[in-house]
Design brief:
The structure holds two protein chains of two kinds. By secondary structure, chain A is an all-beta fold. In chain A, strands 2, 5, 6, 10, 11 and 12 form a six-stranded mixed sheet that branches. Chain A has a four-stranded antiparallel sheet with strand order 3-9-8-7, with no helix packed on it. Chain A has a two-stranded antiparallel sheet with strand order 1-4. Helix content of chain A is 0%, strand content 54%. Chain B is mainly β.
Chain lengths: 113, 114
């Protein structure tokens, strides 16, 4: 079955700490992978995406993610978080030719100023 | 400005009433989607449409209905058959056929059934 797992439901960090949010997926075939972010009171927006090429992808606001095919993972990282990174983060996966994408349950990130 | 609009932002209805949520996009996207967001459950797909006059059920379609008469519009009706309708509803659109299928989201409608 196709699925996305985000194991961290709520992460609390202090400013300047490093961040890694886990994402594992189960999906047959070639995948497109996404991280979306939902800041408080704002639209869900794309943070970064992978569809081919370099497995290390860089997104907005200093975020990056690495696609490790052998581990079916697409973890999100940021070397030094800021208070403004407080948000909910969603990992998602879709097929290269599919219209639908599947979302994980989300990780709420709280940053202590 | 190109984007997706959803109205209203907040909606209150009495139990047993049908209610229709609006979603309009001016991005010229072919595909549109409706998701339901509940705390701790992420986004779950209700219905999606890849082209005008065609739509498919998602994972949690029971108690919901949609129509796609125009490319720009994809209204969602929450019927009285939906057992737990109180939730945050998100509409999205995309253009399938690109190398990747990025979806663009509207601001959402929070529905509360009293």
């Amino acid at each position: 079955a196709q699925s996305v797992s985000q194991h961290n439901h709520h992460v609390i960090l202090s400013e300047a700490a490093s961040l890694e949010l886990g994402c594992n997926y189960s999906y047959g075939g070639t995948v497109n992978l996404f991280w979306y972010v939902q800041y408080p009171g704002q639209h869900l927006q794309l943070l970064l995406k992978y569809f081919s090429g370099d497995p290390l992808v860089k997104g907005i606001k200093g975020f990056e993610a690495e696609f490790i095919k052998s581990k079916f993972s697409f973890n999100l990282r940021k070397p030094s978080v800021q208070w403004s990174d407080t948000a909910e983060y969603f990992c998602a996966v879709g097929g290269s030719s599919a219209s639908k994408i599947i979302f994980g349950s989300g990780t709420r990130l709280s940053i202590r100023p | 400005d190109g984007g997706i609009t959803q109205s209203p932002k907040y909606l209150f209805r009495k139990e047993g009433q049908n209610v229709t949520l609006s979603c309009e996009q001016n991005l010229n996207h072919d595909a549109m989607y409706w998701y339901r967001q509940d705390p701790g459950q992420g986004l779950r797909l209700i219905y999606y449409s890849q082209i005008v006059n065609d739509f498919q059920k998602g994972d949690i379609a029971e108690g919901y209905s949609v129509s796609r008469e125009k490319k720009e519009s994809f209204p969602l009706t929450v019927t009285s058959a939906q057992k737990n309708p109180t939730a945050f509803y998100l509409c999205a659109s995309s253009t399938p056929g690109l190398p990747y299928n990025e979806q663009f989201f509207g601001p959402g409608t929070r529905l509360t059934v009293l």
